[in-house]
Amino acid sequence: MTNADQAYREGATRGSTPVGRVVMLYDQLVRDLTRASAAIAAGDVPRRSDELAHAHDVIGVLQGTLDLERGGDVARSLDRMYSILRRQLLDAQCAASTAALQEPIQIVLSLREAWMEVERQIVAADAVTPTVSSQPSSVPATSLTGAESVPMEWQA
User: Fold this and answer.
1) Could you tell me the CATH number of the domain that includes residue 112?
2) Residue 88 maps to a domain
3) Which of 40, 100, 125, 140 lies most in the core, judged by the most C-beta atoms within 10 Å?
4) Is there a domain that residue 74 lies in?
5) 21 Cβ neighbours under 8 A, 6+ residues apart
């Protein structure tokens, strides 16, 4: 199986849950930032701008789906982190610096890993105690993100 086939299958599997859709958005964000970094290195200003603009839009979707009321401190922390990421992307755009994108990429990868762990816990809990709900009451992931409302077009 090729990497592309594997990535497609993993994405399709993760996309079946609200948490999986959040992970897919992080995947897209990493792709955008990596391509923006390559564009900066190549001196391709239009591509850099397009990639960073799309990354900014993806962060907006992630931030816009947070449920700050039900998500509590975690949702508020994510909201602050997304604001910091937006500022870092603007700084990277102005500085045209690949180095300026390294920290945002690492932050997104860390957030992605944390959400993948949430998804693993959900799957494990469902395997131990099958219920009608796809989420155990101890992990209210969608109350943090409102992920059930993430538009499908952002999951490319």
Assistant:
1) 1.20.120.340
2) yes
3) 40
4) yes
5) 14, 15, 147, 150, 155
pTM over 0.90: no
Range of the structural domain that residue 112 is part of: 3-147
Backbone angles phi, psi at 32, to 5 degrees: -60, -45
Domain annotation covers residue 156:
no
> 3-state class of 156 per DSSP?
coil
SS3 34: helix
Task: Report yes or no: 27 and 11 within 8 Å, Cβ to Cβ.
Answer: yes
The candidate with the shortest Cα–Cα distance to 145, out of 48, 49, 35, 69, is 69
- Burial label, 2 (beta-carbon count in 10 A; 0-12, 13-18, 19+): exposed
By the 8 A CB rule, do 25 and 150 touch?
yes
Domains contained in the chain, number: 1
